Structures are given as C-alpha cells and as structure tokens.
Amino acid sequence: MSLQYDPTNPWHRIPVGENAPTIVNGIIEIPRGERAKYELDKTTGLLKMDRVIYSSMHYPANYGFIPQTYCDDDDPLDIMVLTQATIVPMCLVSCKVIGVMRMLDGGELDDKIIAVAENDMSVNHYNDISELPPHFKLELQTFFEDYKKLEKKAVVIEEFLGAETAKEIVVKAAKDYQTLMGIAQF
C-alpha cells in the first residue's frame, strides 16, 4: 500500500505518545454505545461512516486508533478506551495500555489494544487486563464475535493478553508505520 504523508491528517500529525508504549495517544472514531461504524479515511483525514452495524448491537467501549502506527490489516492499530465517559469522535485521549484482544477478522490478524483513559480516576488504577471484571472481557469478546454475523463474516477471538504483550504490539506497529512512511526507526 502506498500512502502519502499528510501533515493535516491526524493519523500522521499526532505522535504515538511521548511515553509510549505505556501511555499512548488514542483518537476516538466510535463512541461507546454507538451502532455506526466510523473510521478515519486514511487519504483525507476525515471521519467517514463505513456502515451501520447490521446486528442490533452497539460498541461496548470507546473505539479508535493509535496515531503513527500501522498493522497487517493496512490500518492504524485499533484501541478500545475504557472510561466512564462516552467520548466524541476525533477526540484525542491519553491512554494507559493495559492489554490486547487478539482476533482474526476475515482470517487476518486484527489486534485491539485495550487501554484506560489516563485522566479518568474511575479506571486509571487498572494496570493490566487481568484486573478487569471477567464479565467485561466476555462482553468485548461477544460483541466482536457477533457484530459481523449478519454480514456473513467470521471473527474469531484468539485470546486476551496482558499489558506487556500489548506494549510490544504498540512498538511493532509504530516501527511498521515508520517503515511504511520511510521514516528513520526510533
């Protein structure tokens, strides 16, 4: 895939985070509770509506991406941001990485970093996904396994892994972005 660096595009303009991979910047595309699937248009930097979820379901967490990252699915690294607030689209959030949900979407690896909003006292005490209530992880898993069923698409949740693995994935995705853009590695 050949993409041009565009300093007006938030994917390129916003850094991955000064304290990455522990604290990263997250850009929200989809607020918690939403049925519409919004995503950043990589060419224009605008938020576009990809589709409305076919199933009668809604996103269980604020969902977006980590800027200046790139993954095997040709997109920035996905992030789910846990907070008591519903975050508006295109909001920049400082996020503490606590884990990752590893999944296959249409046979392709599609990791979802799980983080807490650094500035939300109701969740920022979590340091690892193992500290989350088991039912919440089950909600995440069920949502992602089921949200594409009516589209006749398969999603398989492989496993939930802790903060250390998630941080390794962030570092790799940041390096892959630098390679894609022809930027010297950090």
UniProtKB/TrEMBL annotation:
Catalyzes the hydrolysis of inorganic pyrophosphate (PPi) forming two phosphate ions. Its main location: cytoplasm. PROSITE patterns: PPASE. Homohexamer. Keywords: Cytoplasm, Hydrolase, Magnesium, Metal-binding. Belongs to the PPase family. It is an enzyme of class 3 (hydrolase). InterPro entries: Pyrophosphatase, Pyrophosphatase_sf. This is Inorganic pyrophosphatase. CDD domains: pyrophosphatase. Its EC number is 3.6.1.1. Mg(2+) 2 binds at D78. Substrate binds at K37, R51, Y63, Y147. GO terms for molecular function: inorganic diphosphate phosphatase activity; magnesium ion binding. GO terms for biological process: phosphate-containing compound metabolic process. It holds the Pfam family Pyrophosphatase. The keyword Membrane does not apply. GO terms for cellular component: cytoplasm. It is found in: Cytoplasm. Its cofactor is Mg(2+). Mg(2+) 1 binds at D73, D78, D110. The gene is ppa. It catalyses: diphosphate + H2O = 2 phosphate + H(+).
